[in-house]
Amino acid sequence: MQSTGTPAATATNVVSKVYGPIGHIELDRPAKLNALTLQMLTELTRVLKLWAKDPAISLVLLTGRGERAFCAGGDIADFHRAVTTGAHQEFIDLLSMEFDLDYLVSTYPKPLITLAHGITMGGGVGLASHAPVRLVTQSATMGMPEAKIGYTPDVGGSHLLANTPGYFGEYFAMSAASFTGADAVYLGFADVIVNDTFAENILDELDEFVGLSAGEIISAIEVLHGAPESYALELSQGWVDHAFSADSPQEVLERLEKMVHPAAQQAAQLILANSPSSITSAFYTVRQARTEQDLRSALDRELRMAEHLMHLPDLAEGIRAQVIDKDRNPRWSPASISDVDQQALRSLAEGTEL
């Protein structure tokens, strides 16, 4: 397919081209797994708003360049720099812009198709899983891994997690475990799993969908190019719901530790390796998101929680241990969930903090 427009400057690591009625945006930072920077967020917002008003464009496609990732999330190095140099407000402003972009994606007035492949984590989920048409490959790796670095699910992740079957939301938020693209439809993070041939040639396949609504496009792609989804997670629904339906993070751990199911024991180990403050935050943000069922409210809540956690020691320490020094041995403070101020984080999630 030949472009009828001039590509946007690649200095922003975002490439936008127009092919007749189709606009194509590519994240172009493959060496960094398309991790999002301020410049990328700014350009994505600019192009999406411009094309939303352009009557010549009927359909928009968002993909990531490179075989390894659609988008691994935000740039963790920038995050660490902000929390260790006192630039907290600067990074909160960046997060606010990112969250507004995610909301723009969710309310886009035209069929906006996202294709998640490879690593799709954190901020990548924010772009891929709120769109009107959400495609994913079977081999994609998705998740909200924030509790591993002393942070909390954001970019609307708490809203998505709250809408998973049963209490899988609390499980994935607290454990920071990942799941495959084959599980994404079951969990509500995607609409259709597509075969590899279609994914590799998606731009050449979109002409026949021009003029259709988002719902019609989803149905057509599922029939013509869909791949089997997995229901393997259903086998874990029983023990997950029993443990994670508890009223507090401490009770979740207590229930897990009493269970003999090997997967439950593994879940407990994953959770205990994460920041106690983060797993507490994750639990209450997902729980509150379930009661409200509103993406904008979830994003606002996540921003409040982010601003709080940025001033705690765990975020800088988690990034150091997982990303910078890579010793995988974070020293959390507090080190035990029993020492976390549960009421403070719960009130923050509920918006009732003093």
UniProtKB/TrEMBL annotation:
InterPro entries xref list: ClpP/crotonase-like_dom_sf, ECH_dom, HIBYL-CoA-H
Organism domain of life: Bacteria
One GO CC term, this protein: cytosol
Occurrences of domain Enoyl-CoA hydratase/isomerase (ranges): 22-347
Organism whose genome encodes this protein: Glutamicibacter ectropisis
Gene3D superfamilies with a match to the protein in the record: 2-enoyl-CoA Hydratase, Chain A, domain 1 (3.90.226.10)
Reactions it catalyzes: 3-hydroxy-2-methylpropanoyl-CoA + H2O = 3-hydroxy-2-methylpropanoate + CoA + H(+)
PANTHER family: 3-HYDROXYISOBUTYRYL-COA HYDROLASE, MITOCHONDRIAL, 3-HYDROXYISOBUTYRYL-COA HYDROLASE-RELATED
Tagged with keyword Translocase: no
Protein name: 3-hydroxyisobutyryl-CoA hydrolase
GO BP, sorted A to Z: L-valine catabolic process
GO molecular function annotation: 3-hydroxyisobutyryl-CoA hydrolase activity
